[in-house]
Amino acid sequence: xxxxxxxxxxxxxxxxxxxxxxxxxxxxxxxxxxxxxxxxxxxxxxxxxxxxxxxxxxxxxxxxxxxxxxxxxxxxxxxxxxxxxxxxxxxxxxxxxxxxxxxxxxxxxxxxxxxxxxxxxxxxxxxxxxxxxxxxxxxxxxxxxxxxxxxxxxxxxxxxxxxxxxxxxxxxxxxxxxxxxxxxxxxxxxxxxxxxxxxxxxxxxxxxxxxxxxxxxxxxxxxxxxxxxxxxxxxxxxxxxxxxxxxxxxxxxxxxxxxxxxxxxxxxxxxxxxxxxxxxxx
Length: 282
Prior knowledge:
- The chain is an alpha/beta fold.
- It has 3 domains: 4-111, Cobalt-precorrin-4 Transmethylase, domain 1, CATH 3.40.1010; 114-216, Tetrapyrrole methylase, C-terminal domain (Methyltransferase, Cobalt-precorrin-4 Transmethylase, Domain 2), CATH 3.30.950; 234-277.
- Helices cover 40% and strands 17% of the residues.
- It has helices at 19-27, 36-45, 60-71, 92-100, 113-121, 138-146, 164-175, 198-204, 234-243, 248-259, 263-277; strands spanning 4-7, 30-33, 52-54, 76-79, 105-108, 128-133, 154-159, 179-184, 192-197, 212-216.
- The protein has a 5-stranded parallel β-sheet with strand order 3-2-4-1-5, with helices on both faces. Strands 6-7-10-8-9 form a 5-stranded mixed β-sheet.
- α6 (138-146) links the parallel β6 and β7.
- α7 (164-175) packs antiparallel against α8 (198-204), α9 (234-243) packs across α11 (263-277) and α10 packs across α11 (263-277).
- It is elongated and about 100 Å long.
- Residues 222-229 have low confidence and may be disordered.
């Protein structure tokens, strides 16, 4: 059955594309592209002449039936302007519709601003939360950031140049002056990776230009644990069981099971308890 290929494309440098991606784009009869003008430049660079069909946030629902019709006949490749489709880019509706129609959906992995920024940030990347683009309204932006203020792992955010200052100020207000890596124009001619505090970034990017990926350190505060009950001393446990009339064998077995202590140590404590009370053991 024909396949929908989800093809990752360069985030800047047109050389950052895999051999497999080039083969898929060359051999697939149709490419659904976020902006056909952008994708055409990539295809021209690699002498690929595959027909293009636009698929962006504003026309995706209307385009899906036509693409599903195409998928009934042949493979289709899905690309966005840069990076991996569906990650803060259109395509998720098409992927879901194709899967529901029974079409295989195959990812062709490649460049991603998320992983590129994380790898160069110097901040922990074993666990992270990707927030995409934050809300435009200050109130909504602060609300989103406050919902993640206690997360102890790294945060990753996309941002446009004209909103960078407002976003950095919201980060400072909601999260405090944490370490941050501001990655600008990744893989492009004017690539820049700024590392410092959020307040440092505010002072540095006074006239921001280009596309930004922000990597912010997680919360350093360790959540307080509820108070743990104090362990009852061994002799006190045995004394309570003795007062209940338990024999040595039963008392030692019960305390050994609850504490994990060696049986011989618990029995020794039982004997000492008897000596202290001036009584024989049961």
